[in-house]
Design a protein that fits this description.
By secondary structure, the protein is α/β, with parallel strands linked by helices. The protein has helices at 15-23, 35-45, 66-72, 111-122, 147-156, 206-216, 226-230, 235-238, 262-267, 287-299, 308-313, 351-357, 383-389, 393-407, and strands at 5-9, 26-31, 86-88, 126-132, 163-171, 182-190, 240-242, 250-252, 322-323, 340-341.
Length: 416
């Protein structure tokens, strides 16, 4: 039986694509404009391994934008109609995020219009749209507009029939990801498909579906803790060595655990025996920073953002800084590595530890710089940012299987 096909827009380093490939979808191509993020996606999902995009000959395997896809390759796009089962992806979220300035006039917010234009051209059977929770909230400076409502109206209102649209804010932890990470998820089915979504919201039995998914992955019913996710990558367990990637830095000297937790076992899925994941470089903290971190680990509540009293005590200007609790879920992984403190060691997390908490498997390699700063942040997408921006692959895999469960046995008539 031919696998259904998808394309991924605003793909980042490939978290959503990876999950869909693991769920049994065939990837055709992915669009990502940033060179660093695309380098990671290409290294893992283009031309290597069994999990990879087929990629059309007419589209260069290089970073590009949805605008360029429409303007330079518009001849080929209508030919995809009837060939693509799913368009996945969501436009960059910074303009909607509660973690940012939530600017209704942020130019990145307009990328959703290019998304709509591509949907109108390709007309896939299904849509999987992902964004931050703030996408479903109004902008106070824009007359109370809610972008989720606008995109629903556009998807339902195409002249050729449009889509049945369903949406919900879903926590990634529901699928075994060791952080809450609430995300706005939109699922849509083309209106000509003979589905039962008219009478049954696909999110209606989501918890039962998620429970079965977790069981199939070897995860039990409780929330996965930080310790369960990364305890095998502690310096105290593995020791350190000189970094193989960056002169002057140390890295964790990883050895696969003999008694991995179920989550660690899942993250080792597909890794070669004895293989070491990349991006284990340790931050090079100043001595006084290490002293302060040690004191925080001894005196401050773990699992909670430092109070103003503690921030003032440690002369910290940063508003959001959390020492992780080993027996709780992680706080949401962001693009800023200094938001979180390791639960037992006086350091921030490595890229690999952040990737574990995002549910990237150990065989998935990250490329480019580790960090960046200043004006370069507008153009560069270092490894920490790639990880923080990604859709957790485990969540993507679950959603991909959810859509597949709806696809099974259904028939449709392609729109004209």
């Amino acid at each position: 039986m031919t696998k259904p096909k998808f394309i991924d827009l605003f793909a980042g380093c490939g978290g959503l694509s990876l999950g869909l490939l693991l769920a049994g979808w065939d990837g055709v191509f992915a669009i990502e404009k940033n060179e660093d993020a695309f380098a990671t996606l290409k290294a893992n999902l283009i031309g290597r391994r069994k999990l990879r995009f087929s990629w059309p000959e007419w589209l260069p395997q290089e970073p590009t934008t949805t605008s360029t896809l429409i303007s330079d390759y518009g001849y080929y796009l209508p030919k995809l109609r009837g060939q693509i089962d799913l368009i996945a992806g969501g436009p960059p979220c910074q303009g909607y995020s509660f973690a940012g300035k939530r600017n209704a006039k942020d130019p990145r917010n307009k990328l959703k219009d290019e998304y709509i234009q591509l949907v109108d051209i390709v007309r896939p059977k299904y849509l999987l749209f992902e964004n931050v929770r703030g996408f479903s909230s109004s902008f106070d400076d824009a007359g109370g507009d809610v972008h989720a409502d606008k995109i629903r109206e556009q998807l339902e209102g195409f002249e050729w029939g449009g889509y049945q649209v369903f949406s919900k804010v879903v926590n990634a932890s529901l699928f075994g990801v060791p952080q809450p990470r609430p995300r706005f998820i939109l699922l849509a089915a083309r209106s000509d498909l003979k589905l039962d979504w008219d009478s049954k919201d696909p999110f209606h039995e989501l918890e039962e579906f998620a429970s079965a998914f977790r069981k199939n992955c070897g995860l039990n019913g409780h929330e996965i803790t930080v310790r369960e996710a990364i305890s095998d990558i502690e310096v105290a367990v593995c020791g350190v060595a000189e970094s193989q990637e960056t002169s002057g830095f140390n890295e964790i000297r990883y050895t696969p655990p003999t008694s991995p937790t179920p989550f660690q076992k899942l993250m080792r899925r597909g890794a070669r025996n004895g293989s070491t994941p990349n991006s284990l470089r340790l931050a090079r903290h100043r001595p006084n920073t290490v002293i302060r971190f040690n004191d925080i680990l001894k005196k401050c509540p773990k699992g909670s953002t430092l109070s103003k009293e503690f921030r003032d005590h440690y002369n910290m200007k940063k508003q959001c800084f959390t020492p992780l609790h080993p027996d709780q879920m992680s706080k949401t992984i962001t693009t800023l590595p200094d938001d979180l403190l390791h639960y037992s060691e006086p350091r921030i997390l490595t890229v690999r530890e952040s990737a574990r908490i995002q549910s990237f498997p150990d065989w998935f390699t990250f490329h480019g710089k580790y960090t960046t700063g200043g004006a370069r942040r507008k153009d560069e997408c270092p490894r920490y940012t790639q990880v923080g921006n990604a859709v957790p692959p485990l969540m993507a895999e679950a959603l991909g299987k959810l859509v597949l469960s709806v696809l099974h046995g259904q028939e449709s008539v392609s729109p004209t």
